Amino acid sequence: MSNLEQTLSIIKPDAVERNLSEEIKVEFKNKGFKILKDKKIKLEKHEAEKFYQVHQTKPFYDDLCSYLSSGPIVVMILEKENAILDNRKLMGATDPTKADDGTIRKKYGISIDKNSVHGSDSPDNAKIEIDFFFKD
Ligand code: CMP
């Protein structure tokens, strides 16, 4: 059965700063993702806090929000069959040192914070995260 999905992807400040946005978009396209919408923006810290509110009880929450709002990011809606899981596979483990060869985080990630990309982890969060950035 077909399971066409959309997921929210973010190219984080460390990758945008190193001019890797286009190269990372090619990684997605080569794996069959369509980039339905994309835009380059810079978040205020309070916006990053809202985006990452599921992590608000975590010890790394404040640093995470400071980091996401530290420079420009590229946000995208990606579409393909099983986009949510396939995007997470393509990104690799959160910690780049633990990510498999061939994944985006293994290739471009610098640290667990500067791990180059974010992707929605479930259909519910994909909808929430897409609406967060692209609700007209
Ligand atoms: P992301 O997929 O954007 O979702 C939350 C982010 O928190 C995660 O990527 C990491 O960059 C960051 N983070 C920082 N420290 C940790 C940690 N100890 N465990 C999980 N995520 C962490």
Describe it:
The chain contains seven helices and four strands, in the order E-H-H-E-H-H-E-H-H-E-H. By secondary structure, the protein is α+β, with helices and mostly antiparallel strands. Strands 2-3-1-4 form a four-stranded antiparallel sheet, with helices on both faces. The model has no long low-confidence stretch (mean pLDDT 98). It binds adenosine-3',5'-cyclic-monophosphate.
Mean pLDDT: 98
In the sheet with the most strands, the strands line up as 2-3-1-4
The secondary-structure class comes to alpha+beta
CATH architecture: 2-Layer Sandwich
Largest sheet: 4 strands, antiparallel
Number of domains: 1
Bound molecules: adenosine-3',5'-cyclic-monophosphate
Runs with pLDDT <50, length 5+? Answer: none
Shape: globular
Query: Rounded to an integer, what's the Rg over CA atoms?
Result: 14 Å
Helix fraction bin: 40-55%
Continuous helix count: 7
Q: According to CATH, what is the class?
A: Alpha Beta
Topology-level CATH name: Alpha-Beta Plaits
Approximate strand percentage: 15-25%
Beta strands, count: 4
Summary keywords:
136 residues; alpha+beta; Alpha-Beta Plaits; four-stranded antiparallel beta sheet; 7 helices; 41% helix; 21% strand; binds adenosine-3',5'-cyclic-monophosphate
